[in-house]
Amino acid sequence: MAPRKQREIFDATLRLLAAKGFDGLTVEGVAEESGVNKTTIYRWWPSKAALLAAALVEAPALDLDVPDTGSLRGDLEELVTAFGRLLTEPPARDVAVAALGAAIHHAEIDAGRFFADRLARERVIFERAVRRGELPESADPMLIVDLLAGAMWIRGVFRGMELKPGFAAEVVGAVLDGVR
Amino acid sequence: MAPRKQREIFDATLRLLAAKGFDGLTVEGVAEESGVNKTTIYRWWPSKAALLAAALVEAPALDLDVPDTGSLRGDLEELVTAFGRLLTEPPARDVAVAALGAAIHHAEIDAGRFFADRLARERVIFERAVRRGELPESADPMLIVDLLAGAMWIRGVFRGMELKPGFAAEVVGAVLDGVR
């Protein structure tokens, strides 16, 4: 499928999800919104869950740039700030929170694939940090990412609190330096 | 309302939520399951969201003991292990994940109240640690709790990965000592 067409399908999928929730999302609706024939969509993605899983990984709306600021602290602060914006600022928030929220109830959506894909792209941050001597080789990137992303999720989504400008630096500082 | 009756109403609320999701949860269903008159339930909680918000905070099924092991590290490892079990082991998982998942889509459920209530109970862990000289007075308990709970949530729920026995100690070690 042409990349532009695919992008339109994914955008329509996430737009409908944000507007109507997973139960209101239908392949028919996506076909209508994107102007692509329903049977064509089904040929590529066998179900709306499969379609949403692919959209989660590929959609530009949920993309995070991998920063390269010259330091591990700077890279992680930018990454965490961008993730916080994704979770709390409309319109990205409505898409990201709806998609990840739906994944909790529907294992077929496979949020694990989304997080694995993001971690694969972010590994370069940790490889550079090890080369610069900022991080021991034994450090576990997945643990670091889960702590950082998790704190943003609890604070911004579950507590529903504003993510203040200094919060990303606090979170990164706690994980790099420890809280003691 | 008698505490035993209230407990039965909350248990029925969470049981129905886990079985049918938030959309399938009704005050009528809770009345039937708990043997309490519907109008009585409405007198105490004006909506199913209000009922669920109260159940989240009060239900024994979602209770976490506040440990007192003699050290901050020991206390946090026990707390994090218990939270991980809550998120991944049935039947508690089905209730906790359904309730927190529903809160993402329905702000009236107010997961923030659940987390604020838990933090109020857990503050004693940090006060003891400061008194023992294990933690500077300036340390932020909410930040620590959000990092720990967040990592368990991302790993156990979003990634859907098994929380191995040593994982709680790794998470606590990273937050107390830093990853560098």
From TrEMBL, chains A, B:
DNA-binding region: 26-45
Domain spans labelled HTH tetR-type: 3-63
InterPro entries: Homeodomain-like_sf, HTH-type_TetR-like_transc_reg, HTH_TetR, Tet_transcr_reg_TetR-rel_C_sf, TetR_C
UniProtKB keywords: DNA-binding, Transcription, Transcription regulation
Coiled coil spans: none
PROSITE patterns: HTH_TETR_2
Gene3D superfamilies assigned: Homeodomain-like, Tetracycline Repressor, domain 2
PANTHER family: HTH-TYPE TRANSCRIPTIONAL REGULATOR RUTR, TETR-FAMILY TRANSCRIPTIONAL REGULATOR
Protein name: TetR/AcrR family transcriptional regulator
